[in-house]
Design a protein that fits this description.
With 212 residues, the protein is an all-alpha fold. The chain has eight helices and two strands. Strands 1-2 form a two-stranded antiparallel sheet. Strand 1 and strand 2 form a beta hairpin.
């Protein structure tokens, strides 16, 4: 158990690295995916919609296996950490694109008309008018999604990523104690996820006041 406790800080850091990196990369990659989804070009919109539905329709563990075991270029293959971040960044991009789309659709038509009247092109309209409002609406949803992402990334232990679930499994096998290690990591997940959930609700309440 001492070895488990000593390994726990580094394992927690790995859990946060995978979760936060995937969330950040996904949040950036979701922007072009969302723009394609709301595009007036029906072909592009359908393609982006199909990508989103396919990515969201396949369980995360399957994506992790596909990337880790199925993608190999010559002698190159992704290591466990690369696999975890790539897989969950892809999944995050699909989910956050839909959150962004909800924010985009919340912008009233009059905003676009006002931008056109000011002579703004589509690019400037999005950057100066649409994006600030869209992201403000999307932030609570992203915070809530982040809580789910934190818990979903626990599956990366099965490919050898040394996160908190990995070290708990190792402690269970070495000590025979199947309860204590997992109670400890359950507490860690609560300590991280509950404040994130409260932050999401606070942001949502703040947004509602501003809208009101």
């Amino acid at each position: 158990m001492t070895d488990f406790l000593l390994a726990l800080p580094a394992a927690l850091g790995m859990t946060l690295l995978v979760s936060l990196s995937s969330l950040a990369i996904g949040a950036v990659a979701a922007v072009p995916l969302m723009l394609g989804r709301v595009s007036e070009n029906r072909v592009l919109s359908r393609i982006c919609q199909a990508i989103i539905e396919v990515v969201r329709g396949i369980p995360p563990v399957v994506w992790v296996f596909i990337i880790f075991f199925g993608i190999q270029i010559g002698a190159f293959r992704f290591n466990p950490i690369q696999t975890a971040i790539i897989g969950f960044s892809l999944i995050s991009a699909a989910y956050i694109a839909e959150i962004y789309r909800g924010g985009f659709l919340s912008v009233k038509a009059g905003q676009f008309e006002a931008a056109a009247a000011l002579g703004l092109n589509k690019r400037r309209t999005f950057i100066d008018v649409v994006a600030p409002q869209m992201f403000r609406v999307a932030v609570p949803g992203i915070a809530t999604y982040g809580v789910g992402l934190l818990k979903d990334t626990s599956i990366v232990s099965i490919i050898g990523v040394m996160d908190i679930v990995f070290v708990a499994n190792r402690a269970m096998r070495s000590t025979g104690d199947a309860i204590t290690p997992f109670l400890i990591i359950a507490l860690l997940y609560l300590v991280i996820s509950v404040p994130m959930g409260l932050l999401g609700r606070a942001l949502y309440a703040s947004l509602q006041k501003k809208v009101a």
